[in-house]
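Action item from last week, closing it out:
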Amino acid sequence: MTPTATPRRYLMCRPTHFAVTYRINPWMDPTAPYDNALAVSQWEHLRQTFLDLGHTVELIEPLPGLPDMVFAANGATVVDGKVLAVQFRDAERADEAPAYAAWFQNNGFEVFDSKHTNEGEGDILLAGEVLLAGTGFRTSHAAHAQTQEVFGRPVITLQLVDPAYYHLDTALCVLDERNIAYLPSAFSPGSQAVLRRLFPDAVIATPADAEVLGLNAVSDGRTVVLPVQATALAAALRERGYATVGVDVSELRKAGGGPKCCTLEVRTRD
């Protein structure tokens, strides 16, 4: 089938206060230099890419002292107009949770408080009629049960095993309602078997592309926006009929984030 694009609504946060001053994932090195102005410029290009593709981008106000707030995907999970709020594992990010919940409340969404550690679309991804849910490093397994209760959709638990791919969205990208791209070695053997069964035609990423967070990509069903450094993955996607747009967000990668980390999809009721 020919991939088909659908207009999307995204929530993003300008990296006004972006910095790497602590270490909560293997990508972060507080002793290494970072360039806030470059991070902002790269983010602006990403935002403009979405606008050029015809998508809607809304903005949440960045708050001082929250350098990772730019990673909006961790701020909530939004399906069918319902919002499951988040509860961060690390104290450094805790104050992002109420800020994102307040944005959704102020914009008329029904918001459900998280009962367990749950880092939003970082670990919960809608794939057709089911939700793929990662666990192992951030989002707790108990949060998967609440996710199913809130959204009334089947939840498939996937065990992450490589600390470099600490969120599901660093190891797996939903391409459309029927297919995904992923890095098998980021998952436990049982989870690999589940993914093979559910998505026998999945695009398999190379370790080299995963290492530049190539799977931390955003797809509208036809066009996949991914790190420009992930050249083999981009070629594999084009072979499957997808269009690709490469973006450079390498400064944000110093904190463990890519295009998807910066992008929270806001799904209203059909």
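Closing note: The radius of gyration is 17 Å.
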